[in-house]
Fold this sequence. Notes:
The chain is α+β, with helices and mostly antiparallel strands. Helix content is 31%, strand content 19%. It has one domain. A three-stranded antiparallel β-sheet has the order 1-2-3.
Amino acid sequence: MEDFKVEFPFTLPTGYLDANGVLHREGAMRRATAADEIVPLRDPRVQANSSYLIILLLSRVVTTLGDVAMVTPKIIENLFIADLNYLQAFYSRINAAENPLAGGVCPHCGRSGPAPGDRPGE
């Protein structure tokens, strides 16, 4: 049976700049559960502004971001827009029914794993 991956590493195009001026670019995101998409809908911030849903959703599934102790909605709010867009695309990729990051064999070179360009930002 093929290994089932739950968590995927990423590198942000710009990076999260913390209050001490430290830039955090490396991180990991896990696959979403049904609760990850349903629970934030009850949040008053989402009910007041549906655009806030992605902030809460990403704060639930981004498991690590550099040396940041805990990824909170405030951390996601303070990402540069290029990084927010990147994480949204990455989320879509790893949660797709046919996950291009799960691997496979390139029909051109026979290499195993995701083909160049399969990861957002490549």
